[in-house]
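User: what does the whole thing look like in 3D?
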Amino acid sequence: MSADGATRIEDWTERFQGTRALPRAVRDRLIRAARIVRIGKGTQVFGPDNVPDRLFFLYDGRIRVSQTSEGGREIVLYRVEAGDSCVLTTACMLAEEAYNAEGIAETDVTAVVLPKPDFDRLVAEEEPFRKFVFDAYSRRLIDMLRVVDDVAFGRIDVRLAERLLALAGDMKEVAATHQDLASELGTAREVISRVLADFQKRGLVQQSRGRITLADKAGLRALAESA
Amino acid sequence: MSADGATRIEDWTERFQGTRALPRAVRDRLIRAARIVRIGKGTQVFGPDNVPDRLFFLYDGRIRVSQTSEGGREIVLYRVEAGDSCVLTTACMLAEEAYNAEGIAETDVTAVVLPKPDFDRLVAEEEPFRKFVFDAYSRRLIDMLRVVDDVAFGRIDVRLAERLLALAGDMKEVAATHQDLASELGTAREVISRVLADFQKRGLVQQSRGRITLADKAGLRALAESA
DNA sequence: GCCTCTTGCGTGACTTTGTCACCGACACCG
DNA sequence: CGGTGTCGGTGACAAAGTCACGCAAGAGGC
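Assistant: Here's the predicted 3D structure for the full assembly of 454 residues, as structure tokens:
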């Protein structure tokens, strides 16, 4: 929100469900314990060789969490938006297990980083914070259920239509290469090319290099919902 | 383990990582608060129209958690074994959202059921228990990562070989129909039939109605690991 | 401008996986 | 012994993924 990039974050605890409801004293303690970090667009926030030992709360921006196969193919698992916490990192911290998911900053990101001891104390002592953390976990589990359902049982044309609409938001253009879209859905570039060619023939989209124009959103929505 | 079905469970808190480490007084309190339930093999433990409002700890037996698509196809997400807790139910309880996964008792099951208030208190007050719950969540998330990877990027012959070995354990037979195996992997019965026919031709397995004999486990393992 | 190089995209041929329709084989049961 | 339901086999086709190309649109250098 703050248009001025130099603005200090006065009270980030206002930003999160899990901290907003806490007593003033606790919030002040948190503000002292936490660090604010800014991460440039495109940076890897966490990954197989970059296991964080701290907790992550996303103040501003968006992180894309994806998984890469041995063969180099990629699939997007979910996105972490502002106001949410990044639980895959905590999952890993707590389980101390290997996983091959990674988080990429999709925009410039401002995050609150909390050392694990402070996190533990907070979870122990504060009910609202606990609820926040469990909610985040639940949301991710449910996201993953959706991904499994899509990948195992969904048609790619339907999934692509969905994803294009989601990526466009209110806009009517999506800036993405065919390869980008393939990585979104965990498929191959050629498949996307063919499906998009078909969409174009049907007047649903128009294409130019690295850019898809959604010419008929209603049509795409109809396709997306013909699940 | 107790061959005598009438045997009372003396101290189930010994059975779980998360409760074993607790002070005696807390454990006694828990034993008073919890109920022991026995569930017959094949029963649905939870599901879309069967949302639990209690916490589940698996004392004995095994629960298979699977997801079913609109088209009626099914895929196994993971299994909950004795000593573990069933977090999808808690995920749902906490998020109070709809999901279309279900849990089926794969064997006769003995479980400890803890009312939510007691669960909350335990999470708040006891560090070892908290760790136990978070671990369970992490494990599931990681299981799901694996499922996504398999479904999106894996070959079915490899996945089938893996699954056959896992289902057989130390035995060299698997009692499952082709349809059962298709539901394990989220594919169609015909696909399993064809792959098994191929396995048979290669001398890896032998088949009879509802029963697969793993004739060459080493060969299957080699195939499974040729990821 | 013009050349070159990278990156994005199109395409055809082929393999793998999933779908559909159908039928035969087996087991169980009266 | 004949019905009846489940299980598995099969062939033809559709959808999706793989492989090997080659062309073309920009970006940058000269």
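In plain terms: Chain B touches chain A at residues 67, 69-71, 73, 75, 77, 87-88, 90-92, 94-95, 97, 99-101, 120, 123-125, 127, 130-131, 134-135, 137-142, 144-145, 147-149, 151-153, 186, 227 (CB under 8 Å). Chain B has a mean pLDDT of 89.
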